[in-house]
Amino acid sequence: MKRFIASCLGAVSLAPLVVWPACTAQSGPETAALVELYTSEGCSSCPPADRQLSQLPNANFSASKVIPISLHVNYWDYIGWKDPFAKPAFSERQVWLVHANHRRTSYTPHFFVSGMEVGNWRGDLFDKIRRINTQPARASIQLRVAPGKAGIWGLDADASSTVTADPLALYLAITEDRLVSRIQAGENGGATLHHDHVVREWIGPIPLVAGKAVAHRDVSLPAYWNQRELKVVGLVQNSSTGEVLQAVSTERCSAG
């Protein structure tokens, strides 16, 4: 897991922030299910899984019960289409989760619910989410986002957990909804693909020390990101087993 350190945040004191209500989030007393999809625009079997992720939350699950994120991997880029949302770090994270689940193979589409592999996502995904939701929360996460001028967001997060015997880490992600790609080559050549919950920025791991982590980062948003479609996700994960103890997300967060 050492290779998968996108960027670490230094611990700082949380200063009072002027934020919009949608730009704050606090996890609840029950465990929200983090649904991770590893996908690629170069994979012909991925669009149905992308659509499934886009439908979460839905009538079956409230936004506080399920936190979906889509991580695009780069290992299919060689077959004719380079996925613009793919990052090597996401491929590395998938490999780490595969090993943590005592499996051997990375593939797409590949679902994990709170760090646990879902082999048959069409049949088992909802059951695994419900099972996670019945568990009392073992971690608490608070997020605060200050959208500023010049496309710079200030992210503040603090996390705590009663689980102190295992190594835990806090991660943050900025996701974007309503992305559209017109694929010119590869297995999906000629198709128009729609994506939600796409991870644009990944921050962590930030270790919990004595059950606590406090972090701040200023993120400069590229001009081609649609700020009105961005959310911030936080999660606390066991660094040994891959189990996600808790997750939370803001609503779409924009300065206007």
Provide structural commentary.
The chain is mostly beta strands. The protein is built from 3 helices and 14 strands. Strand 2 (33-39), helix 1 (46-54) and strand 3 form a beta-alpha-beta unit. The longest helix has 13 residues, at 88-100. It is globular. Residues 1-20 have low confidence and may be disordered.
**Which stretches of 5+ consecutive residues score pLDDT under 50?**
1-20
Shape annotation = globular
State the secondary-structure class: mainly beta
The tally of beta strands, per DSSP, is: 14
Rg from alpha-carbon coordinates: 17 Å
Query: What series of H and E elements makes up the topology?
Result: EEHEHEEHEEEEEEEEE
Strand order of the largest sheet: 1-6-7-12
Question: The biggest beta sheet, please?
Answer: 4 strands, antiparallel
Q: How helix-rich are the residues, as a percent range?
A: 10-25%
Strand fraction = 35-45%
Give the count of helical stretches: 3
N-to-C span? 38 Å
Q: What's the mean pLDDT score? A: 90
